[in-house]
Amino acid sequence: MDFSEELVKDFLSEAFELIDSFEKNLLVLENEPANEKSINEIFRIIHTIKGGSATVGFNEIKDFTHLFEDVLDMVRKKKLIISKEHITNFLRCKDEIEKMLSTREKGEIYSSEKIKELTFFLQSLKAPGQTELKNIKREVKGTKVETEDYLSKSKLTNFEISTISEVIAKGKNVFVICYDLNEKYEMRDVAAFQIYALLKDVSEILKVEPDLNQLETKFFKSVCYVVITDKTENDIREKTFLSEMIDELHILKVTKEVLGSFSETNIKKAMKESDVINEEKTKEENKRAISTIRIESWKVDELLNLMGELVITRAALSDINERFDKLDGLFKNILKSFLSGVMKFKLDDDHRKNEEKNLSLLDGFEELFQIFDFFKETVQKLSRISSSLQENVMNLRMVPVQTIFSRFPRLIRDMCEKMNKDVELFIEGGETEIDKSMVDDVFDPLLHIIRNSLDHGIETEEERIKLGKPPRGKISLKAYHEGDSIVIEESDDGKGIDFESIRRKAIENKLLPLEVINKMSQKELLALIFLPGFSTARKVTEVSGRGVGMDVVKRKIEEMGGNVSFYTARNKGSRIVIRLPLTLAIIQGLLVEIDDIYYFIPIASIEETIIVSDSDFKEINGKKMIFLRENLIPVVFLEEFFYQKKSSIKEIEKKYCVIVKSKDKNSGFIVNNVIGEQDVVIKPLNSKLVKPRGISAATIIGNGDIAFIIDVDRVIALSAGR
Length: 722
Fold this sequence. Notes:
Elements: H1 5-31, H2 36-55, H3 59-76, H4 84-105, H5 113-125, H6 147-154, H7 158-169, E1 173-181, H8 191-202, E2 204-209, H9 212-217, E3 222-229, H10 233-240, E4 246-253, H11 256-261, H12 264-287, H13 297-334, H14 336-340, H15 351-396, E5 398-400, H16 402-405, H17 408-419, E6 423-428, E7 433-435, H18 439-457, H19 461-466, E8 473-482, E9 485-492, H20 499-508, H21 514-519, H22 522-527, H23 550-559, E10 563-569, E11 573-581, E12 586-594, E13 597-602, E14 606-613, E15 617-620, E16 623-628, E17 631-637, H24 638-643, E18 654-662, E19 665-671, E20 673-681, E21 695-700, E22 706-710, H25 712-719
Parallel strand pairs: 6-8, 13-22, 17-19
Antiparallel strand pairs: 1-3, 1-4, 2-3, 5-7, 8-9, 9-11, 10-11, 12-13, 12-20, 14-18, 15-16, 16-17, 18-19, 21-22
């Protein structure tokens, strides 16, 4: 059977979201095995995936999740006490389901030995036993009197009655089974589907009333099933009666005599009632508003590109508006006497014609000034609307940082098992939003950092107890907004950094001359951790020790326009702070001019802009510095930096100095001219064609010229000879 591509796509999208939630709830159960909310949630998730996979014909997923659902049902009913071993294997089941979904996404079918192993494991848990039969021997109401009532509830059509007659003639059993469901049951909304699944194991279900679509929309107290089976009435009772879910169970065996007594009048009545229910259902569906929609990411990216073009066009119009404003002032100043009527131009020798021409010219100027004013108002209105549109489009790309953080509980659990450590992860600020394009790029650096915390930072339980620490280690992930940046902090309560170990490793690797290393401060030693190939691990493990880690973190974060800071205290722990721009698409920048070329300095890096003179400069160790509020700040003449020529700025009495901040230190950038703040649409440069020194990207400004975006950290590092 072929299913629409859209239906399959919707199922897969929802299934991937559900499977992430499944892992999160399963890890909660590891610490709180009796957490009913998480137990019910993982059952609901697997049930939903099972139903969806059956709908789109993914039978391998349906079969596996059906078995998994049965086991989780045992957990839910407290027939199976969940252990750490169960959690480990359930996580493996989750991984296999995810692989099945990913393979289906590629249009293929997944199979592996692991599936067979896990199927055997689940089957071993689902050992045959006697089902609890509390209150099962209730007296069934309505033997003769209510026979027609049960059939009425089932709302059989003439065709269905004919089918049942043929089945009975072949010697098979047909039952109408009506369940009165417990309204107080915690998962009452899926109770009817649970019964459906149980019945499907022992029978062929001919009809459900209300139908499955109706049952998905709301809870019905009474649900009837018409089934064809080889089983007996008692078999069905034992299989499907769940005391906590069902108040009453009524089973009617359908015979030819029973069918004969079911009149056409009752059939019509039943069908009429069904039409009323369907009509109510349609009205209810029409009332429901759609609160969310799924949009493919490329559509959002395309919208953002168009938004970028709009920002560039807005800048061009603003530039034209400024020029019109200058012309407006110029005309009004030069033509002041003419416009006030004090003087007139001699445009014709004929006095009358000269008067007419002057009057026409005056009207023309007045209309021109009105056009200037109208254009100014229109540009201001367009600027307000486009700014609001820009903000909303940018928000479309923002996702909670929890999408990154949620991957780590499972990873930490698995790594702790390998390293025989006990660590608890604390997450704060998961709702903080980050640009979707940065999600995958941020994950790898964070993974390296957490691995280092687990391997180098957190001690073993025995070591922690000796140090007077709790046996269980602690790793924290925290996110928050700070100005135009998002800050992600990772911290642990481990042993911290051993500075002497770094010093010994630096000497061993001959990173610097011995006398230099011996004089290095703790802060300078800490900076060595970010060098490629540097590692203090004594042995190579699966997790670390190969010298691949913090240098990757630093490089990745800097590629995204961010920076990394490291703080540590011996036997108290370490903290790593990552600062990133809120978005990689549109930023705010200060437009400056250097040697007649336009450049942008990101606003997020700027502290202030000042004017300095020659007397403010001091030369220390061959480097130019300025005093700013009793602080000595190094300066970079950008004309010299970019064009390797003696700066003409030095000949100017007063100079613009943009004070920028990098790694908690201030520096000054000397520029020819400061133009003003603008929104900057980032256009990446092709690094294969050109590798500009100190430039991170480019953009187009209002007059159509290209402007380069300065990489503040890189310029400072290169100027300092680092």
